[in-house]
């Protein structure tokens, strides 16, 4: 994703999922802005909410016959502007790229007035119970493709 705010703003319609929140006192540091690590909690929560919204389990569960988990392999953040105590924000979330065993999540965090705070790209890898990469099940892959439509990039021609 671009580092230019104008280009990022134009991409927001591609994001079909969003979480809303408000900055709490414990998220603000001595400089009266949200501590940079807290944004990663927001985007992680957004990824989990995204998966829940699509009916995708993200932790091993014998009750659901889920024999895999999802691990964060990479995360990068480009910051543009800080948030402050009591600000309301939106975390826009999408799966940008879907590979054989990984998916790249893209997040744009804005204030509720659409000022862009940051962009986060995170790569999640599906692993088996031994923490070895495994192919994303077709049932999960199909849910993502159906939700994201033409906006998801299929890496290596995967389907």
CATH H-level superfamily title:
Hotdog Thioesterase
Biggest β-sheet: count, sense, barrel? Answer: 6 strands, mixed
- Rg value: 16 Å
Oligomer: single chain
Strand percent estimate: 25-35%
CATH topology name, in short, is: Thiol Ester Dehydrase, Chain A
Mean pLDDT: 90
How many helices does DSSP assign?
Answer: 3
What string gives the helices and strands in order? Answer: HEHEEEEHE
Specify the CATH architecture.
Answer: Roll
The residue ranges in which pLDDT falls below 50 over 5 or more consecutive positions are none
Under CATH at level 1, the class stands as Alpha Beta
- Outline, from the CA principal axes? globular
Query: What is the domain tally?
Result: 1
Number of strands: 6
List keywords for this structure.
single chain; 159 residues; alpha+beta; Thiol Ester Dehydrase, Chain A; 6-stranded mixed β-sheet; 23% helix
What is this structure, in a nutshell?
The protein is of the alpha+beta class and 159 residues long. Helices cover 23% and strands 34% of the residues.
